[in-house]
Amino acid sequence: MEPSHSNTAQSRRSVDRKTVEKNRRMQMKSLYSELTSLLPHHSSREPLTLPDQLDEAANYIKKLQVNVEKKRERKSKLVATANSEKLNSAGSSLVSSSVDVSVPRKLPRIEIQESGSIFHIFLVTSLEHKFMFCEIVRVLTEELGAEITHAGYSIVEDAVFHTLHCKVEECDYGARSQIPERLEKFVNSVN
């Protein structure tokens, strides 16, 4: 009787191990497909091997980390600039030493970065000029045919930090080349 009892226990353990292994594989496949869905699509027609895909994911994550760090540094500079402007407008002679002196001190300010067909637009306004963001969105969508992919803002004391990401396909009338000029002209007209 003991041999049959031993065989039953062994077969249960074997089934349990198989079930655990099957569940682990399914979970790994799910995690892998989630990871690949987050990565930019590979341009070549042939599929990458698993190690190549993992290398690509690691490189993409490193690139994102570098970008996040750059954005944090830029944000701290903008906040320091906004704070120093507030101090200067209050008649104080204190100016933060971490402020980048190449950044103009008056608001509103706009910075435009182009990455292929994507534009990253950073607008810093005072609370009384926050209407500018809506006007910039209108100009981009109605006049220049841009597709807004992200829009956001945050308020720090008296400054409003707007971020806008848009996609502009090149067309006959060259809308992409007009964007920086049109937006900077609009922002400078308010100064």
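[next item in queue]
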Amino acid sequence: MHQSPIISTMADNKSKTAKLTNKTAVRHNEQAKDKAHSRLSSESNGTSEGAAPNELSALEEAFRKFAVHGDTRASGKELHGKNWSKLCKDCCVIDGKNVTLTDVDIVFSKVKKKTCRAVTFDQFKEALGELAKKRFKDKPGEEAVEEIYKLIEGKSPIISGVTKAVASPTVSRLTDTSKFTGSHKERFDESGKGKGKAGREELVDMSGYVPGYKHAGTYAQKVKGSKPI
């Protein structure tokens, strides 16, 4: 018994459709697995979709600026006690009433490891949480922490103690070449520019004139100006 051409064509179409459906399903499953894998990888690295992996918060940026201050070999990942104290001073965490320099030192020793001389960023936040309780006593815990974060966010170390040049009458008098006398005066010209070797050594006059003669170079002019006898 032979099948009609129409029935055979319909069977072939159904077979092709089933194969395409299976391929599409396999493709969708592979794409879903890839997305899940990338999401898990981003979560394990501490990043989320749409956020830059190396983006720093304003607080961490300030932490790193103070961490490398005065130390060209610092990585910015750890903050030493000296720079911790400077941060608290420059950012007005120390107010002299609720928080003092002693409080800052005590908290630093409390949060750092015994064998370490510096604190990490997480330990730094822990220390700020301790100081927030004293600095903002009238505010609840989380709000106090936010306030102390605001004092630090976006800040940089304050450069102080830079010596400025001050004009001194004594120095000006000693460097004024117009007031030099004796052999020192001969070392400079009228504009104050040094003569170099000519001002340091007594050079021999090879012109043929007697030293001090004022009419050097006028002989040729006299000969030309004279009339024949």
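[queue empty]
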